[in-house]
Amino acid sequence: MENKKVLILTATFGMGHQAVSKAIKDEIAAAYLGYSIEIVDLFEIINPSLKLALQKGYNVLTREFEELYNFFYYYKSSAKHNLIDGLIYKGYQKKFNYYIQTTNPQIVISTFPMTSGFMSRFKQQHESDIPLITVITDVVDSWEWVHEDTDRYFVPTQEVRDRLRLKGIPSYRISVTGIPVRKAFKVGQPKSRFTMKKNILIMSSAMGKIKFDQSFLEQLSMIDEAHFTIVTGTDTSLYDSLKHFHFSNITILGYVEDIATLMAEADLIYTKPGGVTLFEAINTELPLLVQDTAVGQESANIAFIKSREIGVIVEAPDHFIRILKEILDDDLKLYQFRNNMYSLKKEFDQNAIISALLA
């Protein structure tokens, strides 16, 4: 089979876009297509110093200035041609075009809105027929993801597909794939969930609103019917502050490579509503307990969790313990959440990515 160069364009804003890119790369590589696959950060192409500044700005805005972040987010998501991205395109399109011309990919896959925009403009300016596939990484249909000369859209849900069709995208260009996750998350559940002592996985990193301290751990330690695994991730200072506490039903972990195994062993996960974590849980059929947020794309993910009945939303930090106890006592509710996730997975076209490459 002909060797093709596949370029996956992404950006490091949160970990979601990168995680999706790696999942796609693994899926293509596992199909033995003989393709050369490279993941490249857009800002490494156009301006590495801009990358660092935008990353810091994104983190500060989403954690401390949600209203200001949402002002920019909803403006970009509702405007078909927004001035903010337009200025970046104007300043860096030539540099992007030069990169594409010199690397000469046969297929481009985009997991970040602006990378789709740059590639779309390249195709128009150079009358290029390089296929552009856009993979949407939250449960959204924002205009910032929609660009002319996009050949295929891989979207998380049927709802997003339908809303894109209302925006004028032909149905034959849209495939419902879920948000791509690594194969490890697609393995069936290894054990029955009707157990006497339930396993609760808590993803504490980037949570922000729950204060993880001795008092919080003591509250968890009094819930005898559950064992808690708290993963602090890249937050090394949080891990250092918690690792000295010892409770028989609480395990404290730092950065963990194999989150898939922890999810497979859990009965419930408490996390923030990021798109990738949401679909990792769906694929693992792991019910969600999710921290409420006003951050634009995450609030859309929360609306989806509610509408599909696959989890419970914690609207305020001081509600967490009460809601947790209620759901732990309700095996029927947990079963319903898992069953809804099982049904939801049937909507995903698991072969869409490979089929698109072969086409």
From TrEMBL:
UniProt-listed SUPFAM superfamilies: UDP-Glycosyltransferase/glycogen phosphorylase
Presence of the UniProt keyword Transferase in the record: yes
Domain Diacylglycerol glucosyltransferase N-terminal: 17-181
Cross-referenced Pfam families: MGDG_synth
Signal peptide start and end residues: none
Superkingdom to which the source organism belongs: Bacteria
Keywords: Glycosyltransferase, Transferase
Family the UniProt entry places it in: Belongs to the glycosyltransferase 28 family.
Protein name listed in UniProt: Diacylglycerol glucosyltransferase N-terminal domain-containing protein
Biological source species: Fusibacter paucivorans
